[in-house]
């Protein structure tokens, strides 16, 4: 901000000096005219200087004052685009430059944030996961020795879920592997909540080829978790989550449905608008601090990941009716080739 004010002040006074120099040059021409007295020439030059100040000097000074009253680049852009500032010299041009700079700064901030998250993830991944795997295998083995097959089964599911979640084998996995991870997750939840929920996976025989198609890792499980935490939160028994897979033309449509409480049209529209918003990554992460928005953060991230990989024709669609459950539709290209964007 200070450099803008300093430079504008410099320009303002340089323009006055330039005008004075021009005036002196003109005065020399007028002096050579034998019919005009020096007094009249001075009056004319003063009038010329006043006209120049009105047309150029005053707008530059107003711009200097306007910038001095602003504290942020956003304030400057808003004030320069204000109706009262339309006669300030270069107001619109400066406002557009500042808006472009603020947009670039936001992108740079998002990039820096992602870099920090990647660094944190890398540091976290240095924790040796084999210690946990070996511990879980030991617990599972002891459970089998003691004849407690339920505990052994749950520990095996937990180990599989954990191994899948932190695997570094790539962002894209097969639908088959993704469904296996969902089964492990649901097995843990069914044990925790005494079978209040059950999972059904519906894949027609002619569409089993889709099990070998690719899907971004951890696409389904967060949606299933969202259904349990929000859709089925008040369900004491017979909670149901159904995963249906269909091939439509060149697309693969996976629908995750629950028979929970659903939501009204206002809430549904709010969530659909939020996952499609153009808000910056940093603002989305800040939303996690608000519990009321936490339910849509995972959906937003999944939607944006899919669009980043495959384009705007793909992503999530959400349908819901109050007291009649929710359907989350995942639209992906039907392919086993790693064709996503990098």
From TrEMBL:
InterPro entries reported in the protein's UniProt record: Bact_2-comp_sensor_kinase (IPR050640), HATPase_C_sf (IPR036890), HATPase_dom (IPR003594), Sig_transdc_His_kin_internal (IPR010559)
Listed transmembrane segments: 7-29, 35-53
Keyword hit for Membrane: yes
GO molecular-function term, one example from the UniProt record: phosphorelay sensor kinase activity
Histidine kinase/HSP90-like ATPase domain span: 215-336
SUPFAM superfamilies assigned: ATPase domain of HSP90 chaperone/DNA topoisomerase II/histidine kinase (SSF55874)
Entry GO terms, CC: membrane
Keywords for this protein: Membrane, Transmembrane, Transmembrane helix
Database matches in Pfam families: HATPase_c, His_kinase
PANTHER family reported in the protein's UniProt record: SENSOR HISTIDINE KINASE YPDA
Full protein name: Histidine kinase/HSP90-like ATPase domain-containing protein
Lineage: unclassified sequences, metagenomes, ecological metagenomes
């Amino acid at each position: 901000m200070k450099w803008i004010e300093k430079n504008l002040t410099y320009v303002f006074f340089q323009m006055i000096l330039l005008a004075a120099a021009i005036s002196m040059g003109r005065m020399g021409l007028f002096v050579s005219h034998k019919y005009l007295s020096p007094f009249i020439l001075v009056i004319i030059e003063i009038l010329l200087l006043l006209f120049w100040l009105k047309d150029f000097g005053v707008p530059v000074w107003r711009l200097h004052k306007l910038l001095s009253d602003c504290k942020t680049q956003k304030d400057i852009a808003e004030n320069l685009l204000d109706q009262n500032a339309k006669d300030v010299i270069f107001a619109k041009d400066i406002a557009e430059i500042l808006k472009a700079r603020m947009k670039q700064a936001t992108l740079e901030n998002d990039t820096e944030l992602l870099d920090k998250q990647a660094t944190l993830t890398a540091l976290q991944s240095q924790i040796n996961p084999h210690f946990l795997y070996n511990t879980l295998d030991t617990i599972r083995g002891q459970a089998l020795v003691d004849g407690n097959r339920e505990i052994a089964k749950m520990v095996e599911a937990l180990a599989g879920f954990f191994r899948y979640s932190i695997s570094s084998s790539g962002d894209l996995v097969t639908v088959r592997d993704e469904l296996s991870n969902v089964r492990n997750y649901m097995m843990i939840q069914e044990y925790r909540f005494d079978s209040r929920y059950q999972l059904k996976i519906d894949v027609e025989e002619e569409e089993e080829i889709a099990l070998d198609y690719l899907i971004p890792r951890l696409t389904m499980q967060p949606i299933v978790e969202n259904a349990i935490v929000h859709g089925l939160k008040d369900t004491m028994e017979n909670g149901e989550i159904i995963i249906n897979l269909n091939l439509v033309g060149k697309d693969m449509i996976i629908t995750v449905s629950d028979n929970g409480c659903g939501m009204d049209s206002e809430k549904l529209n709010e969530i659909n608008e939020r996952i499609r918003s153009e808000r910056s990554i940093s603002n989305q992460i800040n939303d996690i601090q608000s519990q009321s928005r936490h339910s849509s953060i995972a959906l937003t991230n999944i939607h944006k990941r899919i669009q980043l990989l495959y384009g705007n024709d793909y992503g999530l669609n959400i349908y819901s009716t109050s007291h009649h459950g929710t359907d989350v539709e995942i639209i992906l290209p039907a392919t086993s080739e790693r064709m996503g964007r990098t």
